[in-house]
Amino acid sequence: MASLASSRAGTGEDTPKLEILKDALYEEMIQHGDQERLYNQSDLMGLNVIPKNDLSLLLNVIQGLTADQLVVAVSDSRAGIAWRYRSREDAKKYSSLPDTETQMVFALIDEAGADGIWSKTLRNRTKLHDAVLKSVLKTLEGKGYIKDMKSVEHPNKKMYIKAGLSPSERATGGPWYTDSNLDEAFIVGLEEVIYNFVKMKSTYSRPTKQPTKGVVGRKRTANDISTDADGTPTPAPVAQGPAGGRKLPAYLPYPAGYTYYPTAREIAEFIARSGITNNTTLSEDDVQQLVDILVYDGLIEPVVVARRKGYRTTRITKQEPDVPQQDGMEEEEKRLGAEPPTNGYVEAPCGRCPVYELCEEGGPVNPSGCVYFQRWLGHD
Amino acid sequence: MNVTKSLAELCPLLIDEIYGELPSRIYSTLITRGRSTLSQLRHYTALTERQLRHGLAVLIQQNLLYFHTDSDTRTTTYEANSRPAYNLVRTGKILEMIETSYGPAVKDVMQSLFILGQTRIEDLKAAYKVRIRQQDEVAGATEDDIMFDGAEVAPAANKPTLPVPSIAKLNNILCRLVETGLVEVVHVQTFASPEDIFSDVSDRVMRNKFPGGVKGAKGKLEFDEAVAMELRKIRRESTTLKRKLEESGSAAKRRKLLNGAGVNSEHEPEGDPVLDPRQVIRVNYDKCVVELRNRRLVDFAADRIGTHISYVYGTVLKLLSKHIPRCHDDPLMDVGEMRDEDTRPRVVTTNEILNSLPTAVDVSQGVAKVSKNRIDIYSATAVRPNPPATDPVSAILNGNNEEDGGSDDDSDYEGPNGHPAADDSAAVDGDGGVRFAETTHKENRVDMLRQHLYLLAESELNFIRHCGEEQWTVDFKPLIQHLKEAELDVVIEHTVGRQGLRLVRILRKRGKLEEKSLPTIALMKKPDVQTKMLEMQTAGFVDVQEVPRDPSRTANRTIFLWYTATDRCISQLLERTYTTMLRCLQRLHAERRKEKDVLLLTKRTDVKGREQEVMAEGYYQRFAAHLEAEKKLLGQVMRLDELVAVLRDY
């Protein structure tokens, strides 16, 4: 190193020797790990740079390095006091800072890494006065060492991050956030893609042109027979109404043990191939998250076949056949999947009555004069 | 059964609807005041003793009361029995179910039994004799279709053809009804309330078997068992007739003969033992509910998997429920190892199903056909000898590692030869709907039937369980729990939307969750989640638990845990359903009050039956509109009853 003589460090008599040792130790530390690695005292001795295991010499060397900002002391709960090195460029940045306050603040921001640090945390840790802190931050920003950032977890907090780092996934919220806002349109769109993919892969779509005559005929006999001897419990929904009037299901389930239900991995691959997410790459975990949402929504269900967790559409035979997309339908809320089932409670006016709790015969709200019943009974 | 406010209001309304005001008033007093003596009743209702006795007689005739005569004081106390009172609403549904599965003749007999409440076989026969004679007299009447629409009064003499043409036929029908358990014997203890019976029995057991008192845990257990045995003995009283019929043997043989001839033919089967004419019988609601439950489950399967498969499921349920006398085990009686033979879980074999499956059900329909190399036969046919864990805690614990849970089940799984890897070429077939390439042999019926059964077993809901080679059973308890949750989810979805339902499902699966973790899992905006959760808390679907991190209990030092209590939601929904039924009936009364003048007019004998010709145009319009509204309201009550049945009875 050319600047040996000009080094500011080194207080002992044999400065040149110290400088050589410093350089050697620093180089050895770089050789043995990256900036995250912590070296405690015995580690440093183990580097075989300090002759004769001279502790006081090591102390001097480390002190010199620290003063040069090339080594940082950290206290680690497991290893006790330890050190890690810092790259020369960073060290130069530190050395170029005017005062210790600025150095301290920069050190904290540096330490926070990709997660960034909240300005209030900075103030609490450094115990600096507001005005001082502000000017320090301004200096740092002016030098282009730090920049401010936004975190999705705390959208209202003013955060700082070292310039040159991009905020971590925790701070950006992963692929679901655009400009730290949850991108709901993106999510809904992807859900639809996934749902349709699963539906295509997990159901057998009946050819639309299939002549239904024979099937209808057979069905009718099923009805006849079901009222026959020995009390066959009738499949109620079909028993009533003429058989011809019923729509045949557009989709059919696959037999049990079907091994081609798409897995989360296959769905992820499909999405990656299709290039819908042009500048975001979704990991399998991200896709799994979306798939889980669809499961929670009751649209698809997991099926474990041969230790392979695939997904299939629920209520397959209730699915409406695919209608060619109509552009005019966009404004109304589109929903995936079959029509949700209903029951007697939600159909009755009381099931959705906003004043349900108040209603009582003889009270101010009562069934006899209920406007919802009025409308429901078609008396308007 | 717990009687809540709305149920206590609902039952008298139902009684009023069918039996008029007097019984309804007495019943209402009994249900609100608790058990009372005659003099107390007189005091409460301000009715005369004559009126009271009259009303009580009606109520007892219809099995709506319990009574108890104290052996010392010779006074009788009466107590409202809410279950049969509620069941009045279900009458139409039961009759419809009987008709579709047993034919119109059986339905006619059931209907008579419903109207009579309880009757001696002798009296029932006499009633039918009269009708048959009248029928003979008016032979040659017009050929109209017989109308069977719900709770109409028994077919009067002017019906052109009687569904029950002879007394022998009636006897045959009664035998069948008794055999299936749909009709039971009324005995001495029928009108004693369960509490009375229990205290009676435990007193007796205490006196006879434990004169020195019950000592220790073991003694307590023995005592409980002895009591349970006595209680079971009493319960079995109502099936005496059934067992007698079974003992007289040849039940199956007679059944076979019947099938051969067809129920609707004029053939009169020989060999049915004539039932003891003095025996008193009534409809057994418990058994009816079992059959209604089958229908509901078939619908459920049709909704989730497909209509064709639900036919097969219906057959499985029918076979299994032959030996199920009631939906719920009695916590007092059905305990320990010594339970009734009848209450043990049953299995059916594939062959039994095949033999009972109506021939017209086409098992080739309903399931897609794919080439064999796309099917993992080991997973599909995996045998699961143990019922799934019903314990919610362990379910949650297992929920996170489903793969592990699954591997327990198919531990005998061995991968099929070169399974997924070799199939790249097959995948080119597009959507996988590969048809059997020039099917060389026609798949036989039993194989296709198995396909249906496997698919039912594969479902997340476990409609059936493959409990042994070619053996199938249904775990009703978890299945009904799924059904209840499904109904609850319908209500949640309609109340707070799909996103609300998503949040509830997440909580149901994961247990308690901190407020902050919800938006990440549900992929929803934080404020949206908060609004939704508050909305649902107001609706009672979720609740929050506050765990302070330090004693100061400030909001920012507190963890907020959201959770959903499914059972509580279900009981709340049940209560709301009662209330909704009540409101519908109250509205019906209001409607009737509003159209009082029109309705009075239609009661006149010269108007009745000829409303359209006789009444003025405006009046008739109002009458028609009223009938429409009445139909709608009563229909809604029926649909609500379906929900009550799922939430409470199944």
Automatic annotation (TrEMBL), chain A:
SUPFAM superfamilies per UniProt: Winged helix' DNA-binding domain (SSF46785)
GO CC annotation terms, alphabetical: cytoplasm; nucleoplasm; RNA polymerase III complex
One Pfam family linked to the record: RNA_pol_Rpc34
Major subcellular location class: nucleus
InterPro entries: RNA_pol_Rpc34, RNA_pol_Rpc34-like, WH-like_DNA-bd_sf, WH_DNA-bd_sf
Superkingdom in the source lineage: Eukaryota
GO biological process, alphabetically ordered: transcription by RNA polymerase III
Keyword set, alphabetical order: DNA-directed RNA polymerase, Nucleus, Transcription
Chain positions covered by the region annotation Disordered: 208-242, 318-341
Location relative to the cell: Nucleus
Stated family: Belongs to the eukaryotic RPC34/RPC39 RNA polymerase subunit family.
Role played: DNA-dependent RNA polymerase catalyzes the transcription of DNA into RNA using the four ribonucleoside triphosphates as substrates. Specific peripheric component of RNA polymerase III which synthesizes small RNAs, such as 5S rRNA and tRNAs.
Protein name (record): DNA-directed RNA polymerase III subunit RPC6
Species this chain originates from: Coniochaeta pulveracea
From TrEMBL, chain B:
Gene: RPC82
Organism per entry: Coniochaeta pulveracea
Source taxonomy: Eukaryota, Fungi, Dikarya, Ascomycota, Pezizomycotina
Name listed for the protein in its UniProt record: DNA-directed RNA polymerase III subunit RPC3
Chain residue ranges for the region called Disordered: 383-432
Main location group: nucleus
Stored Pfam families: HTH_9 (PF08221), RNA_pol_Rpc82 (PF05645), WHD_POLR3C (PF22536)
Record text on subunit structure and interactions: Component of the RNA polymerase III (Pol III) complex consisting of 17 subunits.
Occurrences of domain DNA-directed RNA polymerase III subunit RPC3 winged-helix (ranges): 489-563
Keyword 4Fe-4S found: no
Residue ranges of every copy of the RNA polymerase III subunit RPC82-related helix-turn-helix domain listed in the record: 9-69
Similarity remark: Belongs to the RNA polymerase beta chain family.
Keywords: DNA-directed RNA polymerase, Nucleus, Transcription
Comp. bias regions, Acidic residues: 401-413
Biological processes annotated in GO: DNA-templated transcription
